[in-house]
Design a protein that fits this description.
With 246 residues, the chain is of the alpha/beta class. It has two domains: 2-103, 2-Layer Sandwich (Heat Shock Protein 90), CATH 3.30.565.10; 120-239, Response regulator (Rossmann fold). Helix content is 26%, strand content 23%.
């Protein structure tokens, strides 16, 4: 959305969620990952629609309106949710609320499996250098914040051209997480093939919300948007040859 485009991004951070943050979610412990800007803010009539799929204020051909809806989608798949707060002239904050660990539901004695991020698996990615290629600005920022919450080092690019420039400058990269459908000289699959030419065996994970864009590329792991944090974590680990699962 044009209204959410920031003039300057202030910060991204994570913290344990407060009880008031999760009153409408299942019992358990949650983390809150917030991304804030100092932009113009979003009018109230638009704020109530920002999570709607395909809602956008951008001109035709300049945006799909899927960015924030995909953010909400993978939060819900993970057992959490996403919230947005904005003040005109003061900026906007998007907050992801995600389960901190697997837990049993309160009352009734029945166990409920939450899609969560077990600490041992998340810590295995600590220090991994991830090149994130995503043209949607909101999704790029939120995914980068999520990866940093796994203690990854993250380089971001908005398209294949910028990714190749970073890669060619000698930037250290352990694994690539790339969207498939992007503007520019090549899509994500062509980018992955080019990166593999330059560094054979480079771990690559492709992700897309368009089923027609996904092919049976046997050498690349492919995720569908919206992918949950757990799915992203597992795909990166698998691409890097690290143990997966519990």
């Amino acid at each position: 959305m044009r209204a959410t485009r920031p003039t300057a991004w202030a910060r991204s951070r994570w913290r344990p969620a407060a009880p008031g943050d999760v009153q409408d979610l299942a019992p358990g412990e949650y983390v809150a990952i917030s991304v804030s800007d100092r932009g113009p803010g979003i009018p109230e009539d638009l704020l109530v629609r920002v999570f709607e799929p395909f809602f956008t204020t951008k001109p035709v051909g300049k945006g799909t309106g899927l960015g924030l809806s995909q953010v909400l989608g993978f939060c819900v798949q993970a057992g959490g949710t996403a919230r947005i707060a904005s003040q005109l002239g003061a900026g906007t904050t998007v907050t992801l609320l995600l389960p901190a660990r697997s837990s049993a539901s309160a009352g009734g004695g029945g166990a409920r499996d939450e899609v969560a991020l077990p600490e041992a698996r998340a810590n295995a990615l600590a220090g991994a250098r991830v090149l994130l290629v995503e043209d949607n600005e909101e999704l790029n920022r939120v995914t980068a914040s999520l990866l940093r919450s796994f203690s990854c080092q993250v380089l971001t690019a908005k398209d294949a051209d910028e990714a190749l420039q970073l890669f060619g400058s000698g930037a250290a990269v352990d694994v690539v997480l790339s969207d498939v459908v992007m503007p520019g000289s090549m899509d994500g699959q062509a980018l992955a093939r080019e990166l593999r030419k330059r560094r054979p065996g480079l771990p690559v994970v492709l992700i897309s919300g368009y089923s027609e864009a996904l092919t049976a590329e046997s050498s690349f792991i492919v995720l569908r948007k919206p992918a949950s944090p757990s799915q992203i974590l597992e795909a990166l680990r698998r691409a890097m040859g690290l143990p997966t699962g519990m």
